[in-house]
Amino acid sequence: xxxxxxxxxxxxxxxxxxxxxxxxxxxxxxxxxxxxxxxxxxxxxxxxxxxxxxxxxxxxxxxxxxxxxxxxxxxxxxxxxxxxxxxxxxxxxxxxxxxxxxxxxxxxxxxxxxxxxxxxxxxxxxxxxxxxxxxxxxxxxxxxxxxxxxxxxxxxxxxxxxxxxxxxxxxxxxxxxxxxxxxxxxxxxxxxxxxxxxxxxxxxxxxxxxxxxxxxxxxxxxxxx
Amino acid sequence: xxxxxxxxxxxxxxxxxxxxxxxxxxxxxxxxxxxxxxxxxxxxxxxxxxxxxxxxxxxxxxxxxxxxxxxxxxxxxxxxxxxxxxxxxxxxxxxxxxxxxxxxxxxxxxxxxxxxxxxxxxxxxxxxxxxxxxxxxxxxxxxxxxxxxxxxxxxxxxxxxxxxxxxxxxxxxxxxxxxxxxxxxxxxxxxxxxxxxxxxxxxxxxxxxxxxxxxxxxxxxxxxxxxxxxxxxxxxxxxxxxxxxxxxxxxxxxxxxxxxxxxxxxxxxxxxxxxxxxxxxxxxxxxxxx
Lengths: 225, 290
Description:
Chain A is an alpha/beta fold. Chain A has helices at 46-53, 79-85, 101-111, 116-129, 145-157, 175-190, and strands at residues 6-17, 20-31, 35-40, 61-66, 69-71, 86-89, 163-167, 194-199, 212-217, 220-224. Chain A has a 6-stranded mixed β-sheet with strand order 6-7-8-3-9-10, with helices on both faces. Chain A has a 4-stranded antiparallel β-sheet with strand order 2-1-4-5, covered by helices on one side. The model of chain A has no long low-confidence stretch (mean pLDDT 90). In chain B, 71% of the residues lie in helices and 9% in strands. Chain B has a 4-stranded antiparallel β-sheet. Chain B is rod-shaped and about 105 Å long. The chains are: A alpha/beta, B alpha+beta.
């Protein structure tokens, strides 16, 4: 089977925190529309790798090409344009507790300068898809873990990013809720979003069709077929 | 257009936070504006007075009684020609009374003493020093005049005080502007700390630097403008009150409002410093590249 053209290409990537080696000579390519699992032990460098892909960290050496953006020690993309293309879902959700579900989902849309009418339309669709209509006006502090994660996904997906990075998206959830979240992510993947999930639970990949699996071990990365 | 609308929404969200601190900031900035305008007000009115004083001078001339008629008529003609408001002439009798400090003379032949003692004239010209120098040149040629003294020692002392006062004034003005900048900086810094998570999220979902920074600058701008408006109003009220107090008999000191250019300078200064303070407080956010 011929893989579509890559949306992410990583060449000779190294990352150090001081003298501590985190990632060493990472080379990989991820095709458009793929569902990628990035596994590894705690502290293996999964989150660091995702942060580099999200341009939160600058690699010590090497080159990362995401869509038309290039991330390297000497080159940083225009962050706001890059982030509209690559969104991130965090393990601890990173939601604003005092804001309602709607207001949290609205944040990236407001940053893009979308008019209130268009924003509301998009939010209504997302609330329906993610089954959040009943809690749309509740402050996120009052929500359960699963609901919070769905709000985080809705916020990340609201700008229709090409790539969605998820750092341990089911880390704080029970098995039933983890399954539901993976189903939601699969739904968006089927609509063309490339999804990269960093997780330490390998069994999650059984919930997705045709996933690509990379494992980080001893600072190096390996594709597992 | 919708981007501006979104920016405005973001600004309103920012303004919702720390309302009390914001009111306090506006209050202190207003007080700083008032202080600045009071200093400039004093300076403006004092400078006006100094200018008058600086262009004034006094000539004291003396002559003997034998030339009295001649010189008195000369002085009268000068008074008319140069429109000198007042020439005070002191006779020998007056000079003697000053010498004796009010004691009476009975056994001395006064007429002989008066013949020996000189006449004195004090010619003061306010706001027209050049004219007085011309008069002095004319009087030099006049026969019978013993002495001509130009007295400007007091003015020199006042001028030296004034030049030192100017340095002092500049230092105070700078210190006050710095204080307002520091205040705006600390308020924005607190606001930034309280909104750290929101700012982090904004950056991580794709907000541009301008989208985050503009509401902070707008906040500084608004504080500066409001403080300037209140400060101006308070200055105007203060002048009204002071004039009611001092512009009455027997003092008759009229305090004039500082010119519009001064008000504009303070307003621009306060607004700029307030904006700069906000900008400096949020600037480190963009160096980290989060």
